[in-house]
């Protein structure tokens, strides 16, 4: 079947209140009609996601904002003009039309316009905004291919296969305040990029905000993961897989996945979840070691994911 007829079929499913997995430029999403609470409930069930963790709504045209949010000011449109379609989610005051199940009862809703052609066409053809979290089981590794989705969520009604995603980590999530923006989740759109449009609100003066779904453990592989440091040099490397960036740590490992051939952090983002999936599935590997990077720019988003993925394994 052609990709276009696959999208037609997926759009029919969305209209019928079913749940469909689809590619975005960041990771695969597990989508349902955002205006249909029963359909959205299925997302929580399939993902085994706690009901306190709200979903992002995906739109394909700026006009769809009108029904979803209240009083979007000109900063929203400026940011949208610069970064949409693309990997930026804005948390905004929600309208009454957004069902409470989508936002876990919050008065705000996260919205983004993905740049992936398949995602945009699916939203257009479904003729509704699509609520979608990443298409993984709650707390586990995010999916960057259709096979990753299938591995964790074999029972989803339909998966559109759009190949490997091109950004590889989830969108940057921001909240607008009176003073500017705060980052709730780092991504490849960095503070510096956003500051070209509006000022950074230095939240250190106030209480630090994070998204409600931001638990310490997330993105977690089913086998031990450590971030490389001196102590992890004591491990048995003959059973270990290394996620390598600089190339400097590669000696002695059973297997090495080099995430970038040109020392570019964007490549680390694109390839990190795939590397985790690949070692998770590999029977030769008992422990995964990931090389850390400097926590600046995109490095912030990479270390955020690695720390959360390693969190559960720190004490085991
Ligand atoms: O790139 C992405 O953002 C991907 C693709 C599929 O679009 N989606 C994604 O969704 O990462 P999810 O559900 O895995 O992560 C969304 C995060 C959650 O941690 C959630 O708590 C937060 O966004 N979030 C959603 N609505 C929010 C709100 N109203 N206020 C604060 N945080 C919110
Ligand atoms: Mg997720």
What does this molecule look like?
The chain is α/β, with parallel strands linked by helices and 316 residues long. It folds into two domains: 3-194, DHBP synthase (Alpha-Beta Complex); 224-315, Threonylcarbamoyl-AMP synthase, C-terminal domain (Rossmann fold, 3-Layer(aba) Sandwich). It is built from ten helices and 13 strands. The chain has helices spanning 3-15, 37-47, 65-68, 74-83, 100-103, 117-126, 146-152, 191-195, 265-280, 298-311, and strands spanning 20-22, 29-33, 56-58, 88-93, 108-112, 130-131, 158-159, 172-177, 180-185, 224-227, 240-244, 255-258, 287-290. A nine-stranded mixed beta sheet has the order 7-1-2-6-3-5-4-8-9, sandwiched between helices. Strands 10-13-11-12 form a four-stranded parallel beta sheet, with helices on one face. The mean pLDDT is 94. The protein binds threonylcarbamoyladenylate (TXA) and magnesium ion. Residues 24, 26-27, 29, 53-56, 87, 89, 91, 103, 106, 108-110, 112, 114, 132-134, 170-171, 173, 184, 211-214 line the site of threonylcarbamoyladenylate (TXA).
Brief descriptors of the model:
316 residues, alpha/beta, DHBP synthase, Rossmann fold, 2 domains, 9-stranded mixed beta sheet, 4-stranded parallel beta sheet, 10 helices, 13 strands, globular, binds threonylcarbamoyladenylate, binds magnesium ion
Classify the helix fraction into a percent range: 25-40%
Task: Give the quaternary arrangement of the chains.
Answer: single chain
Q: So how many helices? A: 10
What's the level 1 CATH class of the largest domain?
Alpha Beta
Spans of 5+ residues with little confidence (pLDDT < 50)? none
């Amino acid at each position: 079947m052609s990709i276009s007829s696959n999208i037609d079929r997926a759009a029919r499913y969305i209209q019928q209140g079913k749940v469909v997995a689809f590619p975005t430029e960041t990771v695969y999403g597990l989508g349902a009609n955002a205006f249909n609470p029963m359909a959205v409930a299925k997302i929580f069930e399939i993902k085994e996601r706690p009901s306190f963790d709200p979903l992002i709504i995906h739109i394909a045209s700026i006009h769809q904002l009108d029904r979803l949010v209240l009083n979007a000011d000109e900063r929203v449109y400026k940011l949208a003009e610069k970064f949409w379609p693309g990997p930026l989610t804005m948390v905004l005051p929600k309208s009454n039309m957004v069902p409470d199940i989508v936002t876990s009862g919050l008065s705000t809703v996260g919205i983004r316009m993905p740049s992936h052609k398949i995602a945009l066409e699916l939203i257009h053809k479904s003729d509704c905004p699509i609520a979608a979290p990443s298409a993984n089981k709650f707390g586990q590794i995010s999916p960057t291919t259709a096979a990753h989705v299938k591995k964790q969520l074999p029972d989803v009604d339909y998966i559109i296969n759009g190949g490997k995603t091109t950004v590889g980590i989830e969108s940057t999530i921001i909240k607008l305040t009176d003073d500017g923006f705060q980052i709730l989740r780092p991504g490849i759109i960095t503070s510096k990029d956003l500051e070209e449009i509006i000022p950074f609100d230095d939240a250190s003066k106030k209480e630090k905000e994070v998204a409600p779904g931001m638990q310490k453990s997330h993105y977690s592989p089913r086998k031990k993961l450590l971030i490389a440091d001196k102590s992890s040099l004591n491990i048995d490397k003959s059973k270990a897989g290394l996620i390598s960036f600089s190339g400097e740590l590669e000696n002695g490992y059973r297997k090495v996945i080099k995430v970038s051939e040109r020392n570019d952090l964007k490549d680390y983002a694109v390839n990190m979840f795939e590397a985790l999936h690949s070692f998770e599935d590999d029977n030769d590997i008992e422990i995964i070691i990931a090389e850390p990077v400097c926590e600046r720019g995109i490095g912030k988003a990479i270390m955020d994911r690695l720390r959360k993925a390693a969190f559960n394994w720190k004490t085991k």
